[in-house]
Amino acid sequence: MRCHYSLTVIVPVLLVPLYLHGLGTVDIIGDDEAREVGIIQDIAERDHWVLPRFNDTVYPDKPVLYHWLAAAACAVGGGWDERLVRLPSAVSALAVVGVVGLAGAWLFDAPAGIAAALLLGLSPFLFEHARVARPDTLVTLILTAALFTFYAWWNDGCRSRSRAAAVGTLFGIAALAKGPVAPVVGAVTILAFLALRRQLGRGRALLRAHVLLPFLFIGGAWYVAALAGWGEDFARKHIMGRYLGNVLGGDLALGVQPSHSLLHHVSFYPLHLLLATLPWTPLLVAAAISIYRDPTRRGDPRFQFLQVWIVTVVVVFSFAAFKLRHYLLPALPAAAMVASELTATLAQRQIREARSSGASGPARSASGRQAFVISLAGTALVAIATSLWWWIGGPESLSRSDRELALTIEMAARDRPGQAMLGAAAAALLCAAGMYLILRRRWRELLGLGITGVLAWMLTIHPTIQFELAARASLKPFVAAVKRNVPEGSPLYFFGQALRPVVVYWGRPIPHLRRDLAYAGSARAYIIVTEEDLPGLLETDRHVRTIVEHVGRIGNLARGRVLLIEVEGSP
Q: What is the pTM of this model?
């Protein structure tokens, strides 16, 4: 058994070069990642370990566990860079792959554990978010460990005090990484599972001091320090504005209200879950169909727990006013586990033999194979419907971030026509080979083909797209030009919108004038302003001169012109 467990650990070890390669080659371009990096800089370079802020004004959007880990990496590495601030995210993704592999071997068997680890580790969705300096993969790791610890405690008859205390401790650490939403997801998963098993009374064992005290101490200590240090303003902007406001319909602190229909809120996460699990969605759907059609497996607590886990993530975040795809990351480990047993069976080519031998599991009959064929047909129909939707609605039918991604791919194809044609030919070849294998029912070879395609995406296509996107959106060249043109010690300000990546690459806080130049005083000053805010600056009676212009990312999604303006001193 120890040998079987060790085999599952090999998967994340083999994935280390894939996840760490080129981690720092893409610039910090989005506001969200820039905010996290700026807080890491405040910790690592100015020793604000407990109460860090971005640009001396913006509170952390979440508690600071991720920022502590990244600041420690920067301290060991001798200073911050894009690779070091993203390192905890990549390591957390690899760790959750290992946890899922071990859990799969424990819940099912070694082949299922290896399959679960491969499905999760070769998930483009996880890979993409493992290369961003945000706490999402870290909280996914902690929640995964907490929920599997709970299941081990429940499976053991709810007798182990140490496992129950570990659940509370891990929930506290999750709150320190993501805020109250992380333990809420975990608690709702546990309650829903116990209700499904008609064992809600067992949940009282998790409300004892040895569980609650570590949770409250670890998860609440930073909030107590933040309230003591920042007071009412922090409570209004962070707790009321970000967390409570998101549930009630918008960001109360920023006065932002989403404008989507009820159908959008209800359907967003179920539909995007199918996208987030690509290219392994057919396996997940086939496994779910197979479980549903088998009464024995439908009542199996292992599958019930995993399915409740997935549904809880979808339902809890559906209440949030703002819909973000990365909120689905905590559902990916459970999805990989649900599909793992069927995947291992297909890989071992045991379906036909098992149908005649009466083996248990998805190979007991042809149900697993039939479900896989049905799911493949469904995936093809979804692909056709998506193509028609794109053809009818055009680019406007996509979200703004997806439109920018599509435009980046189009421009990259125009700049590199030879590589684009080669990539299109390779994709066509993969599709043709996949259709051939489906028609011949060569499932193990089809899985191998899927793995080949994912590896090609991770090694070549995804890095190329991200590099092209950063080249179009990065403000790092603009900051380099600012450093060349602004004399040392001269005052530098933002007018109108503050650009967070500029603060990151400038390396120290930049005062924000909002829209009132009077706060800059009467001396000569240098102003960073977007083209949209420029008319307000030109209304001043002081002489202004444009020094640098640059086009790049404004906020998280917009693209626009940024200018460095020299404002002459008033007489």
A: 0.88
Q: What is the DSSP string of 87-130?
A: HHHHHHHHHHHHHHHHHHHHHT-HHHHHHHHHHHHT-HHHHHHT
Can you tell me whether residue 383 is helix, strand or coil?
helix
Separation of alpha carbons 192 and 205, rounded Å: 16
Of 177, 237, 222, nearest to 52 (Cα)? 222
Give the separation between CA 135 and CA 133, rounded to whole angstroms: 7
Q: Return the structure tokens found at 187.
A: 């608690």
Q: Where are the domains of the chain?
A: 1-134, 258-376, 398-471, 476-567
Which two tokens mark 18? 């894939």
Give the pLDDT mean for 181-205: 94
Predicted pLDDT of residue 396:
45
Write out pLDDT tens, residues 72-110.
999 999 889 999 999 999 999 999 999 999 999 999 988
Nearest 5°: CA angle at 24, between 98 and 92? 20
CATH of domain 476-567: 3.40.190
For residues 316 and 318, give the distance between their C-alpha atoms in angstroms, rounded to a whole number. Answer: 5
Q: Say what percent of the chain tops pLDDT 70.
A: 82
CA–CA gap between residue 198 and residue 549 (Å, rounded): 65
pLDDT at 136 over 70: yes
Q: How high is the mean pLDDT of the chain?
A: 83
Residues of the chain above pLDDT 90, percent: 48
| Alpha helices (runs of H) in 294-359, residue ranges in sequence order | 295-298, 301-318, 332-348, 351-357
**Would you call 433 exposed, middle or buried from its count of C-beta atoms within 10 A (0-12, 13-18, 19+)?**
middle
**Coil, strand or helix: which one is 360?**
coil
C-alpha span between 383 and 142 (Å, rounded): 34
| Half-sphere CA count of 252, side-chain side, radius 13 A | 18
Q: Is the pLDDT of residue 472 over 50?
A: yes
Asked if residue 1 has pLDDT above 60, the reply is no
Beta-sheet strands, E only, within 488-557: 492-494, 525-530, 544-554
